Structure formats: C-alpha cells, structure tokens
Amino acid sequence: xPPLRALQAKLAANVRPNLGLDDARIAVVETHAGVAIExxxxxxxxxxxxxxxAVSSDELAASITELKLRSPEDEGTNGxxxxxxxxxxxxxxxxxxxxxxxxxxxxxxxxxIIVGTGSNDENGMLGRLLDKAPALSxxxxxxxxxxxxxxxxxxxxxxxLNVDAGYSHQGFVRNLASSSRFPALSTLExxxxxxxxxxxxxxxxxxxxxxELLFRSEAFRNVRxxxxxxxxxxxxxxxxxxxxxxxxxFQMRLDKWSSRYI
Length: 262
Prior knowledge:
Elements: H1 3-14, E1 25-31, E2 34-40, H2 46-55, H3 58-61, E3 64-70, E4 80-83, E5 99-102, E6 112-115, H4 125-132, E7 138-141, E8 160-164, H5 172-177, E9 187-191, H6 208-216, E10 225-229, H7 235-242, E11 251-255
Parallel strand pairs: 2-3, 3-5, 4-6, 5-7, 7-8, 8-9, 9-10, 10-11
Antiparallel strand pairs: 1-2
Helix pairs in contact: 1-2
C-alpha cells in the first residue's frame, strides 16, 4: 500500500466512533503539482510518528509540496508543547516542498510551543530541514533555528520567513544579518523572546544593535514587509530603527501582546 494511503488507514483505525477533538487526523489535497498535507494531532502521540514515517518515505517525500503541523489542544509536558521533527529528517529529501508551517504560540496558551528535541533544544533541526528542502518558499515556526540554518548553499526560493524566538532567540536576528543564504527574502515576521515573567527577561531579548545590523545588512535589502512581535524596545526606538530603511515601499509593523495567569 502506498505510504499516504497506509497513513490514512492507520489514522482512520485509530479514531474513536464519535470523533473527538483530540483525535489525530490529516487533510490531504492532491494536485498535478504534488501533495499538500495538514496534520492535526498531538506531537507526543503515536499518530505523529506515523506521519513522520510516511512523509519521509522515498515515494511520498518526493511529491509533498506543503506540510503543516498543528495540535488540537493546549497540551504539553512541563509547560512545553514540543514538535520533535527528527523523524521527518531521517529519510528522503523534499524536492517539491514549498511550505512548511508549525503552529505558533497565541495569547492564553498554558504551554509554550517550540520545535525541539525532548530536552527542548532545537539542535539544528530547522537547518537540516532547509538542507533537505531546496525549493522551500515559506517557513513558519514557533521557535528560532540555530546558526546551522544560516550556513550552506543559497536558498533563492525562500521568500517568506515567520519565526518566534521561543525559549531562546539563538542569535536569530544577528545570524540572519550576516547570512547571504536568502537573496530573495521579501517578508520577515519575527517574535522576540516573550517570557516576560522572568526576572532576567530583558537580558534574554535580542540586543538593539542586532536589529540595527539587520536593517543595514544586504540580507535585509529585499525585504519589503517586516513584522516585529513583542519588540524589546519602545516606539521611539523603533522609529529610529525604521528610519534606517526610509523608502516608502518598505513596511514595518509592531505587534505586542502579553498574557499571564495570576
């Protein structure tokens, strides 16, 4: 049985008679361009392992154009909902993959969503994904990649990058400013470190000089829209940074939210 059909059969057999909100499922769209898959289920349960096994198989990996991951509930372990995508990276490359998206955090979540291993370390997985997906055009992830993401062959297809810092910004802004890997990047959305309940919260946000370096960099030259979530500075400082890119064709938006339980 082809891997996609086998995956669908496994998921169907795993569903309870009355479909529950937390039952894993997938949505599949097949076109002449390839296969788009959206997985809806817990990153901690067996169905996600089945997905990784099927998607990374030689037959299916070659045809996937879009892969989106989201979970049904605000669940996690020790306050963290961790998407370990190691299983996706063990098999074949993804020559047609254009979109890869993992659900991001929203106000009110009890559990911080990240991409990482059991130790909450991203461990270069997003860089390895990028190496296996040369046609990737849009990447959306809830935690920042490490330095490995910015090294390697050019990725001229990548145009839209949407990243949250998660538990550590890992030098994302500075690393991007110093990288020449994404010459066609046109849209950048970045959510800075937002664990503002920590006593040392300000020291863990991205340094102001990193933003200045980014705005002056060649890597940022083709970016036409920049969305900064939870900026670690006030509006007047943001205006100074914005003035570095003074052309009217460039748009910058600040989004700020805060949510906590007391």
